[in-house]
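ok so i was messing around last nite and threw this chain in just to see what happens. nothing serious, just curious
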Amino acid sequence: MHDRAPSTLRLSDTERLHRLRLIRSDNVGPRTFNSLIAHFGNAQAALERLPDLARRGGATRSGRICGEDEARAELAAAGKIGVALVAPGEAAYPPRLATLDDAPPLLGVRGAPEALMGPMIAIVGSRNASGAGLKFAGQLARDLGEAGFVVISGLARGIDQSAHRATIGSGTVAVLAGGHDRIYPAEHEDLLAALLERGGAISEMPLGHIPRARDFPRRNRLISGASLGVVVVEAAHRSGSLITARMAAEQGREVFAVPGSPLDPRAAGANDLIKQGATLVTEAGDVIDAVAPIMERPLALGAGEPDGEPLDFETDAGDRDRIIGLLGPSPVSLDDLIRMAGTSPASVRAVLLELELAGRLERHGGGLVSLI
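result:
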């Protein structure tokens, strides 16, 4: 069983090299990357404009631009350990992940391509899970695997590793918070090696990157984004698994939760999700029935530019000052900014891109932005 994949493309070696340089340069995130490619047509042209755009955004010094030698070295090192850097729409790039506005422009993938292209269900939960939680996660994962689904999770202790171990034979995908050569936790290196034969591993981080606290929410958006839906099996209040569930809802994915005892704090988060409308799960059939209609819908790649308009870098000084004046430390939505600025969406997005390249803008979930 395969997910409904968009038609595959194939980047030239030169374009792949320059795209890697672009995404590894300072202050270039996935959304900024997409805007630059959409406006300038290719990565090399975008790279040439980075210093000028950052200056226009108020940068006092030039940000680091990844050099050709550095990018070639990363591509070579990745190849040595079986990692390919693929773009949305290329073979082995999970199809549903490719539909996100902030999909990684180049994703490090390794393992079995058919697992990476299959229909995925995420199973996540507590690191210090109960015995009952671990047993249920394993059984649920096994049943989903037998039904033709690929189980995706974060290779963490507890629920994640239980779901992975149960589906080594049917295919499971691990999403890494660090580089492919920096596995966390280190004790799961054997698990990763075992699952790569029929499954896969993905990461947007460069080789050598040691995961930090802020990298785990970034990883979580890939877990939810690649899947049809996310099943939470045990999660305390303020759990990272609840961040994954929230991201799944924002991405339009299904959210499932396994009920637990009200006396067990490890079940509090999952029980709250059910109160908030998550689909209650007691067996694999609950998940399969919910995602079956979704699998019939065609997939479309993310548009890059939200409304299809090109960027307008010819914004006059008055409009530019007004847009920047409306920004502050409190997040504001792009729609509100356009309305209050009284200028075109293309102008507002161009100014925001310049500010981001200057290191002065922070993007938040739900399309919100603020000044740093």
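not much to say yet. The CA atoms of residues 111 and 255 lie 27 Å apart.
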